[in-house]
Amino acid sequence: xxxxxxxxxxxxxxxxxxxxxxxxxxxxxxxxxxxxxxxxxxxxxxxxxxxxxxxxxxxxxxxxxxxxxxxxxxxxxxxxxxxxxxxxxxxxxxxxxxxxxxxxxxxxxxxxxxxxxxxxxxxxxxxxxxxxxxxxxxxxxxxxxxxxxxxxxxxxxxxxxxxxxxxxxxxxxxxxxxxxxxxxxxxxxxxxxxxxxxxxxxxxxxxxxxxxxxxxxxxxxxxxxxxxxxxxxxxxxxxxxxxxxxxxxxxxxxxxxxxxxxxxxxxxxxxxxxxxxxxxxxxxxxxxxxxxxxxxxxxxxxxxxxxxxxxxxxxxxxxxxxxxxxx
Length: 327
Known about the structure:
Distance between the termini: 71 Å
Strand order of the largest sheet: 3-2-1-4-5-6-7-8
Mean pLDDT: 87
């Protein structure tokens, strides 16, 4: 009896998912820009797989010099070859970057600042949701480090970004629909709590990234545009970290509604290229259209506190911050 009822409930969910699939696919925005990026330089973190690789291929096809960054040598070399082969451009460079280690972020930024003449676009795409929480050798929560602290510290590239010619540089931070479920406890921002799921920490990190986007947009007054994007439910192992009944339900739903990496990258691509998106800053985009993040993302007082605590955790002094933002 239980088995029959369980099967019936599953079938009902699947029927509803098919209807939802039709709706989601109809609403999935597609970037239609034909814009070229000849002479421009783009950095994409996590650019050797998934959505990042799809973004890299598209921008390389548009004539940009594309720098893809990831923490794995083999993946980096394989991904770079794939981008070159698919785009037909050999102006693609791989650089090691482990966002979980702030020393790696600083080394990467130093390399870029010393060896690149310009950087016009930075896509903070890399993300993780490790099943187990732990502190890195820097004493940082691993998930928070990869998804947020590393992107925060890449403000070290601002002096070069702000020198972008012809038009303001663009910074695109890839958030997530899960930011709606995030919580920010400034006093325990970096803790590792075994009773808190990795998915919760992932959600927290994406809310932090969205808050950071809005605060950075407020602090930079000229020559740099910053936006956050929600790519939607993209096929990714991240969602497999849901446990129990929630995991089963998520698996069923995502079976029908998840986007491919190519579909998922469309909003980030739109914000990278769109003229109108380049005329404003501090936006949140979904399905290639302006949208609204959760209300907490616009809390200026909370964003200021988050900024200050983040600077402390990644060892950026106030003098460093002032130099990055205004000099």
